[in-house]
Amino acid sequence: MRASTDEDRRNISQQLLGAEGNFQVYFRSYDDLATKYNTFDAPGSLAARTHQDVIFVAKYLMSNPEVKKEETIAHMQNSWNTFDNVENILTLAVQAIVMMDSAAQDWHPADYALGEYRPISWLSQESFLSFVERSFPKGPGQMAEKIQEAFDDRSRLKAWKLQKRLGMKFHITDNLSEHLMLDTKNNILYLFHHAAYLKAHLAICRGVPLTLGATARESLGHGTHPPQLLVETLHSLQAILFPSLNKKSSKVFNTLIRKEGFDPECAQYEGYKLFAEPPQDFSYVYWGKRIAQLHEVAKSRPPKNRFEKWFQQWTTERNALLVALSALLISIFVGILSIILGSVQVWIAWMAWKHPVHET
User: Fold this and answer.
1) Among residues 85, 71, 65, 178, which one has the least CA distance to residue 131?
2) What is the pTM of this model?
3) Are residues 180 and 296 part of one domain?
4) Does some domain include residue 112?
5) Does 311 lie in the same domain as 234?
6) What is the DSSP letter of 182?
């Protein structure tokens, strides 16, 4: 399939993003997938697949979020009277709607993992809704306290602090389900950077309207993600990692835009406020576990010098008893020394009284 033209981009923007806008980074990702070798039309195909076909499939999924993958493929084959390249067009359509790789597991070895993240694919007997819900599990209830702690202490998670204190690197991802994934082995934090996409979908939510607590079932029918997921993603970028008016974080952010291809729309800080202002008790539901894990790493950063290393060794829980015993022994020693000194002073005073010095 060829890269999208200006006309294709206008159609996709209007049909899938709700409006025309600055989606340059979005279409760069879209065209990369569209022009990959495995999405070219097979030799002898009856008709070349077009970007209008991608819109056709996307609209079908939006109208039928509970349709199974095998049913979707059958619908495409019957509509186009061909078996050629159908799954690749489906993968591209899913990416265009929800920015997820529905064949992620197919591109990786069976044992591939990134921290706790394992890529998943849309299963043949699975509905589109179930695949999306499975890709974004909500944080476990038992982590609520740690999530709230991380949220309250979010100043520790500014990008410049993570970079300077932990030597952390930031890599962009076009897969929303990989957002805030931490590769502890290589010290890399993955960030979903498509701010223009997030803002466009928040505008869709506002126009429907969808409440902050809308479910995936309710949201997919309008071709978007749950507002809570969109708000959390943009909030994590604009209010936690790269807060406005923070020069040090802005410097890191500008480097990512210039060298890594980060979406510059993230620098426009109307952000998540395109949706209703998050309530005062706003907390993370989808990204809470990953934020809490990142916070734990930030709290337990490795020592940078000998003093910090010594201090860390002597403040760990396993050494707490040893420290307490040492303090007790020191107290006993000081007490005994005080008794000895007191006794010496009494003896000196007694000797001075017993043997007074007479002046001549």
Assistant:
1) 65
2) 0.80
3) yes
4) no
5) no
6) E
